[in-house]
Amino acid sequence: MSDSFVKTHPSGPDAYLVEAAGLAWLAAAGPTAARIVEVREVNPARLVLQRLTPAAPGRRAAREFGVALAATHAAGAPTYGCPPDGWSGDGYIGTQPMSLRPTSTWGRFYAEQRLLPYAEAAYRIGNLSTAARQLIDRLAQRLMDGVYDDDRLPARIHGDLWAGNVIFTERGVVLIDPAAHGGHGLTDLAMLHLFGAPELRTITDAYATAARLPSGWRELIGLHQLHPLLVHAVTHGSGYGAEAAAVAARYR
């Protein structure tokens, strides 16, 4: 078997280029940060990566990953919404376009670039109800007003951190397939909690300690899950739209 893994079906004309830039940016977070899959070749039609051999998830690897993820986030980003170094323009999350536009506050960035565009898209195709759309709109205004802003600096986040992109190997956890940008560290943690992950409690406890999360952070996990829920409402149906509405109702 080859020691490389080749991807040849990009989500868009520049999807592999922005993915490679994101991988490089995350890898540059430093020696204590999360391990990132190695990029061996990239062009618009082809991305060649190091092939990973999965291993059974373990508590020690999970704990080390939680600490390393906090170090990745602590490496920082110039602003919320900024693209990874070496890239200008927008990106993707899964198959969906995702804007990457620098913004001074997290609340405005999250409302304008992560909630409203996907709420509109889901509403337009009938996967988000009128009442749900109104809930999202009201929450977006609260976000833009700064209700949920805090004093944490922009983090260097993976951006699509569900369990399928967290690969346990013999050398520990390695991350793949990012939608990397400047954001809030809780967004990565919230994605893991939304879809589940092996040894999630161990990862979470290690991250929370290393990142020095303030008390009450768990109450905000749902807020950070709204973006992936709305993306899935666009791509996977109205059930996710209903779930997004239920979560948004907790923050009105």
TrEMBL record:
MF-aspect GO terms: kinase activity
InterPro entries the UniProt entry points to: Fructo-/Ketosamine-3-kinase, Kinase-like_dom_sf
TM segment ranges: none
Pfam family membership, one: Fructosamin_kin
Entry keyword set: Kinase, Transferase
Similarity section: Belongs to the fructosamine kinase family.
PANTHER family associated with the record: FRUCTOSAMINE 3 KINASE-RELATED PROTEIN, PROTEIN-RIBULOSAMINE 3-KINASE
Protein's UniProt name: Fructosamine kinase
Source organism per UniProt: Microlunatus phosphovorus (strain ATCC 700054 / DSM 10555 / JCM 9379 / NBRC 101784 / NCIMB 13414 / VKM Ac-1990 / NM-1)
